[in-house]
Amino acid sequence: xxxxxxxxxxxxxxxxxxxxxxxxxxxxxxxxxxxxxxxxxxxxxxxxxxxxxxxxxxxxxxxxxxxxxxxxxxxxxxxxxxxxxxxxxxxxxxxxxxxxxxxxxxxxxxxxxxxxxxxxxxxxxxxxxxxxxxxxxxxxxxxxxxxxxxxxxxxxxxxxxxxxxxxxxxxxxxxxxxxxxxxxxxxxxxxxxxxxxxxxxxxxxxxxxxxxxxxxxxxxxxxxxxxxxxxxxxxxxxxxxxxxxxxxxxxxxxxxxxxxxxxxxxxxxxxxxxxxxxxxxxxxxxxxxxxxxxxxxxxxxxxxxxxxxxxxxxxxxxxxxxxxxxxxxxxxxxxxxxxxxxxxxxxxxxxxxxxxxxxxxxxxxxxxxxxxxxxxxxxxxxxxxxxxxxxxxxxxxxxxxxxxxxxxxxxxxxxxxxxxxxxxxxxxxxxxxxxxxxxxxxxxxxxxxxxxxxxxxxxxxxxxxxxxxxxxxxxxxxxxxxxxxxxxxxxxxxxxxxxxxxxxxxxxxx
Length: 510
Prior knowledge:
Structural class: mainly alpha
Shape: elongated
Largest sheet: 2 strands, antiparallel
Number of strands: 2
Distance between the termini: 95 Å
Order of helices and strands: HHHHHHHHHHHHHHHHHHHHHHHHEHE
Low-confidence stretches: 1-21, 26-49, 404-413, 488-493
Radius of gyration: 44 Å
Strand content: under 5%
Number of helices: 25
C-alpha cells in the first residue's frame, strides 16, 4: 500500500529541519499556557479557581469530576486484578500478554498507573539495574546551554496544574532536574522541547527517578529518533500517516492534498507530545495506557480518528477553504466527541495493525532515501509493544551476568532429551493399526517392484533357435524299411556300427 505523490508542502518540509522545528514551535505557540482542552488548562477565563479536579487541575467543578467515571465496585474489581497481575509481572507478560493488553484498553485505574506504567514500558527494570544512576545524573552540573533552554520552557508545562503553579515548587524543580538529567544521560540528543509535557505527565503519577527511566524507555524503545536533533523518525512517520490516511479516510486525504496541508503541520505536536497538549486529560491517560501496551500504532490510530472526526464528512469540509481553516478545524473538535470511553472505542476499531505500520515504513523509507540519500533513521530500532520491550530486557539480562556474580564458565551444557509420555490406550491402538497398514503397503510395494524387475529381466533374455513354422501345413512321418543283411552286404560281413540317433530313421515329407 503506497501513498500518493508528496505534496509541495511535504517536500519543502523534508528539505530542511528548520521548517520542522518552526512547525512544532508554532504549534506550541498556539497552545501557549491555556489552549489545550485538558492538559495545560481546562479554563477559559482569567485567574484559576482553587478547586481542583481528580487529576489536580484547578478550576474544575464538582459535577464535572464525577462525569464519565465507572462505578466504584468496577474500579475496585479492576484494582484487584491489576494488583494480582503486577505481583507476578514476569509470568503475566510471558504467558498472558493478551490479557494485559485487554485490561489496558479498558483503562488502568488511576491508583495503579504509578505501578503499571513503569512495568509496561520497562522503566522499573531499567531503574533496578541502575541503582544510584539517577542521583549521579541529578548531581551533575549539566550543559549551561541546555539548562537555559529548559528553564525557559518549564513554566509552559501544565501551568494550571497544582504541581506546576509555582516556579519554586517541587513540580517545576523536579521537572527541571529530570530534563537536565536526561541531557547528561544522552548528551548527543540533549533536550527536545516536546519532552517537557511527556516528563510532566510522568511526574504527575510517580517519583522523579521512576519518571526519568520511563522517559528513557519512551525515547529509546518506543519512539527512537523522535527527540534527536534530526527528528528523522518524525519525518518518516508523517509520510506513513498520510499513506494510512489515504486508505482509512480518502475524503480527508483528498482535502489535505488539495490544500497542500502537509502532515508535519499537525502530526508533529500530536506524536512528539503523545497528545498531552491536544486532548482532554482523561482521554490522554487512556491513550497512554494503550500506547505503553501496544506501541506506536496507537498514535497512528488516534491521529486517524481525529482527522476523520474533523474532516471526514462533507459538512465539516464546507467551511475549510484553505490551510488555516483546515488546521483550525483539526484543533477545534467538539469535546463531546473526545470523551474517553467513546473516543477510545473508536480508536481501537481502526483497522491499522503493526504489520501495516511496518510495511508503510519500508515503503516510505525507500521513497525518502531517494530524495535524501543521507537519511539514516532505521525503523527496526523501534519496538512494537510492551511484550517486545519485556523480551528485549529478558534477553539482555540473560546475556549480561549480574553484578556481584562471577561469570559462568564456558562449557557446553549437555542436551537433555525427554521422551514424550505414552499415548492413551485408544490412541495407541490407532497408532498400531496405522503402523501395520503402513507395513502392508510397503510389502505390497516391494513385491510389485520385484515382479516388475523380473518382467524386465525376461524381456532382456536372448531368444533360442527359432522353430520352424508348421502352422497350416500337412506332413507325413514314414519309417525307413530295414533291409536284410544279405541284401545290404555280402555273406560273412558283419554289420558296421550303427550311427548315433540313426535308428529308427524317420523321414518327414512335406
